[in-house]
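Protein in question filed below.

…
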Amino acid sequence: MKSNLWLLLFIFLLNSCVLEGLMRTWSTTEEYDKKFNSILVMGLINNVNLRNEVENDVVYTGGKAGLRCVNGMSMFPPELGKPFEDVERAKERMRNNGFDGVITVALVDVNAERYVPPQVDYEPLVYYNRFGNYFFRTYDLVYRPGYFAQNTRYFIETNFYELKVGKLVWSGKSTTFSPAELNSYLPQYSKGLFKELKIQGIIQKLN
């Protein structure tokens, strides 16, 4: 009996630490429709296999959380290049395909200008409020020579946009990790992401 109590305590602490240490977040104070039926998961990653892996992991975990999530590669494959040169047209295409939310996932070098040290409060920059601006700023950051080198550390930056009026409603950054840790880190991150979205009430109802 005593050993079972210790086991339950260990599991509780493990889950708490994962959720607490996984990311630092920001969420909007503005009102919006929190009911999402279909969410596109868009990896902003300069590596096709890696992008597909990240998108699929987030899609899988979102499905387990009760959301209909779709791999962004299916709508915006690499051969399209920069798919958001006409942002309104891209959003219209997503809406026409039934999407009312977009989750962007980017792997960012800790040496990038928008890395926020742990002791500093995290808050999205102004350009985050426009999906097109964010996409192009991030595209220029990750689509550069030497992206995802083995001798540096990265963090995952995630934004959640609702498409009905087109605003950023949530943003988060993970703790840092090395490329060698990605395979074990990514499932924890995806799980923590959807836990956080539920805890913070970003999604009111999982349809």
Q: What stands out?
A: The helical segments are 2-22, 48-64, 87-96, 131-142, 182-199. The two ends are 39 Å apart (CA to CA).
